[in-house]
Fold:
Amino acid sequence: MSKRLQSLLDEEEFREIQRVAGGKHLTVAEWVRQALRAATCRRTLDSQGGSRKLGVIRAAASHAFPAGTVEEMLAAIE
Structure:
């Protein structure tokens, strides 16, 4: 079910949003929906804190991947 959201903007703000949305070939409504989704996603990620991100980085760094020296890798590429 869809819900309507109304927001009042001054002329300058609205023109800027129209310009940006038009540059992406989007309607103003679609641009606003995408901007709200992106802001919600960022807020969700931020609320999880840095500990989750740090845990992911530590887990990735704990893996041992085979790698040679720079010279060996360049030779293999060639």
In short: The chain has a mean pLDDT of 87. The two ends are 57 Å apart (CA to CA). The CA atoms of residues 35 and 41 lie 10 Å apart.
